[in-house]
Amino acid sequence: AMERGGNLIIPAFAVERSQELLHDIGLLMNRGEIPDVPVYLDSPLARKVTSVFVKHAEALDDVDAKKLFQHPRFKIVQSVAQSKQIKEVEGGAIILSASGMCDAGRIKHHLRNNLWRSDATLLFVGYQAPGTLGHILRGGAKLVRIHGKTVEVNAVLREIGNYSAHADGKELVTWIRERLPATGGVFLTHGEQARRKDMREELIRSGLPPERVMLPALDETFTLAVGETIREEPAVTRIAPAELERDWYNDYAALILELAHRLEEITEAAERRTLLTRLRSALDQVEPS
Question: What is the value of pTM for the model shown?
Answer without folding.
Answer: 0.77
